[in-house]
Amino acid sequence: MDNLTCKNCGIELSGAFCRQCGQKKISSRLNFKDIWNDFAANVLDVEAPIINNIKGLTLYPGRFIKDFINGKRKSKYKPVQYYILIMGIYFLLYYGIGIDALTQQEVNQARGTDYQFYPLVDRFDKILNENIRLFSILLVPILGFMTRIFFKKSSFNYIENLTLALYLSAHAQFISIAFCFIYLFHYPFYSTTGLLILLATGYICWGIVQFFDARSFGGIVKGVLCYFFSYVIFICISSILIFSYLFIVG
């Protein structure tokens, strides 16, 4: 009798899905088959949300994000959900395969011995390098605010601009995931990082221009300046936070 009621809301079932909450009928305990089917439906299926996000945000980010804002949200990972997913995968790879140790070693070698004469700068640089991905979260609300300022004639409110920033920042981070594997071949840290910054910056600027249909020369310049000033503000706020921390701890 228990199998004839919805496990989620207790309503009596008359088919494969609950007529009240929409949950699929569950007739057995959770097992490996359930886990595999969920994985296949959400990752391996070409129409799965994660595949749709990767494809849409790679090929036509502006249109993809506007479709989400305008209500076409079926088979799409929501912006916060997608951001957390990509950041989680990146951190898992970054720390799991030892890229953090490798990059820090190359940073120390590139510094040489000059930094020993500037202990405060050395500590600042160390904190920034060790926590750069966490600090990068600050860039999302800043970018959302700056797109609202630079493109104030558009009809999008701040939350919709924040949605744009979340999607673009997450997918720029997705680009970083590919570079995790490049690091495994011990390519020089600075050469790969420079290329990564160039690609990520270019992608975000392109996404902004496409989202606001700012395809004129002036619109493109506005999109580039929008991201540039967002990054400047991000660096300033990060610097204030780090120096405040160093001042407090002594």
- Percent of residues in helices comes to 55-70%
Quote the distance from N terminus to C terminus.
67 Å
Rounded mean pLDDT is: 79
Outline, from the CA principal axes?
globular
Low-confidence region ranges? none
> How many E strands?
0
Q: Major beta sheet, specifics?
A: none
* Number of discrete helical segments: 11
Can you characterise this structure?
The chain has 11 helices and no strands. It has helices at 32-44, 49-59, 61-69, 79-96, 99-111, 119-130, 132-135, 139-150, 158-183, 189-211, 217-249. The chain has 250 residues and is an all-alpha fold. It starts with 31 loop residues before the first helix and ends with a helix. The chain has 2 domains: 1-30; 79-249, no CATH class.
What's this, in brief?
By secondary structure, the chain is mostly helical.
